[in-house]
């Protein structure tokens, strides 16, 4: 890490993986603090104001409910404060790629075609979904 | 409001809440179901509504967990992991939407088959209920040994049972001497969030940080939308071929009798059973996915209902983790003496309110997944950061622990999460085994040490 604490320099940032997704640690500390302040804060406020107008047996439950509401507010605040640390890549597939995928996974495309043609139910389903062509359009010589 | 109305309202809350949670990838069932079910119970909700809420939550979760699994190739939760391989194949050839449709249609069918079948089986088993309750301590200890041996850790899990039991009892003793009451919610939550907390701790520690450090952001690939289907509520029997519907029904029926096996194991097994005999990759993948997601749901329903109706003590992997709050949520429910849904509801109530929960979840999550899966995924990916989600869970967990035992409760949760999480991550002592140890710990320590 370089020492010029410039958070805008994305190159100098490292991320931490927590339950399967990348996060930036300073932001995480901030979100946890905000969430705790909202949830426990709301709970404690509830404990101090509900005894004035709620039956004594319900004070704990009402305060808990207020705490949950607080944590939801915290979630919204946190979601607005920070940007997600993930990139989304939207790519399309074509029928040429179908062949590549099959080769890479070592499945036999010719066998697949035979299986489709021998199974009227399956063939019909694929036609309805508009994917039969992808499989059957380009007739290849079946491999021996 | 009548009980029926309250149950419907809570089933709607459960369905909506867990439809949204399901879209978030990696939202582990135990970590999300335990806190929310506890909240519902502690608010004094009638038992009928608690059950309807839970049933609705698990179905909604297991329909929407198919969204990240199919569209992005990341498991939605623990049970989605076995489905990744087939889902990835379909995603690679540009058909993620078909993987998704097959999965959720299987899930809906599986749930509705499992409810009546597992309930009938539970009624048959209930004659042995008293025996189980009287010997709960021994049974949990034996189960801890068994589950431990078959978990990732093998012998080390068995070896750790007594030391961990001693730690739990010790923490329990200290906290009860401070608070004059014994804690249990704090223990549950600690076990449930252990794995998440360990990730955070590793990141905080200078020496361990490289283990969780990443130079780059995660990249997710999302296939573009292909073609919408007509209508708002597609018929699951039209999405699946007759044969596939039959396969889902058969495997769901079989798995409705299981209450001691791991749901992930059952899911893989049944998927393999169906898939291995099919020629052609496309058909193999679609049939396996429908079957597997049917089984994720049927095992969850069966493993919840059988111990709940027959014994009143949590004796299955699901009731030890995600469903534990239905058995034990002091001061409302307890397992010793048995005072929980088992004693409060009749089998008929379980059927009616379970059905309400499943129907409402199906009405919410099924059309949502069919029509808005991709939009929801893009929204979450682009708008909601992971930090906010983790923050919310930590906030809710601290809130519940504080509610039970103020600062002591929070510290106990933290201590249990550190110990349990580390043992889970580095030695393979699973969450299920930890719950078993917790339940058996008082019997173990009093019997062995007097």
From TrEMBL, chain A:
Keywords: Membrane, Transmembrane, Transmembrane helix. The keyword Transmembrane helix applies. The chain crosses the membrane at residues 28-50, 62-82. This is Uncharacterized protein.
TrEMBL record, chain B:
The chain crosses the membrane at residues 36-60, 103-125, 131-151, 158-179, 185-205, 350-368, 388-419. It comes from the Bacteria. InterPro entries: DUF112_TM. Residues 8-426 form the DUF112 domain. The keyword Membrane applies. Pfam families: TctA. The keyword Transmembrane helix applies. Keywords: Membrane, Transmembrane, Transmembrane helix. This is DUF112 domain-containing protein.
